[in-house]
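Example 248, ligand NAP.
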Amino acid sequence: MKLLENKVALVTGASRGIGRGIALRFAEEGAHVAFTYLSSEQKARELEAELAAYGVKARGYHSDAAIFASAEALVNQVLTDFGDLHIVVNNAGITKDGLLMRMSEEQWDTVIQTNLKSVFNLTKAAIRPMLKNKQGVFINMSSVVGGGGNAGQANYAASKAGIEGFTKSVAQELGSRNIRSNAIAPGFIETEMTGELNEEVRKQWAEQIPLKRGGTTTDVANVAVFLASDLSAYVTGQVINVCGGMRT
Ligand code: NAP
């Protein structure tokens, strides 16, 4: 028996990186996968085909996670297409780094809207079918900088710290309804997001990591499988670091 057999999962921002890794691992475990993207149309279509090769239902939706009304429309469409919704992974996220002295209001607002408000948007929209089902799982993508802060990422770190507080609150509000809510805090994971960093910074990161390597998207996806499945039936309101043991 696969761990997510016949579950319906919705993963935001899965056209690339960690979201894509999670979508693939979920499909491998038997989940039907709905996912969103913003600009990578071609990659989304390719992912649909890769997911379908696991024998599950898969569909990518163009949907901006930052927009409240889009989340409601997305959930309604997923329910129409898939018939149910059991697992939501709020993964979509961006960086707009800069030291606070130089950070613009636009840099602040865009990151907060895309990373934090998005989690509120989709959680609100997905609660309804989960309450009806008397079960549900939320997995929200934080970052180690949410707990530890990071120079040059005040906006990003604030958005991730916000996600962690939100995740724990949802766990407390909805635990009695059999709805679990946890966060994953990745460290340095090799994706296009970290690919933007220069070689020197990447080397410095790797040196600080006890396991002496950056993480892979599969490293994060394996923890997402754990949190999405009944293996974690008694785990809620937690933030699980996936960071190779780095100090934060
Ligand atoms: P990535 O490679 O840059 O991919 C970001 C994904 O999010 C893409 O699929 C992108 O879609 C989507 N996206 C961006 N803005 C969106 C929006 N407004 N609406 C819907 N989708 C949107 O990033 P990643 O490294 O995989 O990061 C994924 C998550 O993990 C983020 O929340 C990030 O903060 C977190 N994280 C990453 C690391 C790391 O080391 N990589 C560490 C800690 C936490 P398009 O391709 O269509 O634009």
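Summary: The first helix runs from residue 17 to 28.
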